[in-house]
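Predict the 3D structure for this chain.
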Amino acid sequence: MYEDLVFSVIVVDDEKLILKNIVRNIEETDSHFKVVATARNGAEALELVKKHTPHIVFTDIRMPVIDGLQLSSEIHQKFPSIKKVIISGYDDFNYAKSALKYNVDDYLLKPINNDELKTLLLSLKQSLLTELNDSSLLPNSTQQTPKEIVMLVQQFMHTNYKSPIDLNTLSAQFGFSSSYLTKIFIKYTNTSPLKYLTDYRITIAKQLLINPELSIKSVAELCGYPDPFHFSRIFKKATGESPANYRITYRNSQFNQHRKSEL
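Done. Predicted structure below.
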């Protein structure tokens, strides 16, 4: 029933090439999202938001006239139902965190990683679908189709990934047996619920590890792993390197990109 549903998006960035790439990446990653307008500053974006009332606004932080934080604040006050995603460079990470008080839904770091964008779009889609169907797609509702149940399970994990979750948790939450949930989840996602949860947590962990101010222990806890050693084993199994090495690899990559840009 959702195959033809399209969510409208406005993208805001003062750098023309980056703006163009973000638009292309969003639409190529998930066909359920359509960029209806773009803007080069926050003031222009506000006018477009009033005109189109999109489902989501992706905005850079540092822009002329009105920056991304002020834009997010304006949208939050005037259009609270619109979802907001901050796009920031590595140097703006701490600045971006202050956007949380404006109910920003998430953030992406430049350069945008396609896997992270895919995960974010999936999360936004599940959230929007849940909001659209909140009155009819409640747990234990006889109106739910297997595909809708899977969507709700995904959204539950996106919201509660910091907390302990196992098959018994999911079974109790949705009122179905763990075997049934596993069966339909594999059918529609080609992976098990717990593997999906692990992959989602690892994606979040990669984003958090970019911040050098967060210890490995803090990253582990923020991703739902109270034991940092267990987290390290899971992370290494999923990525091929430890969290500490991943952090070093990313830092070296950013340094090399910066050097190339100076040449």
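The radius of gyration is 19 Å.
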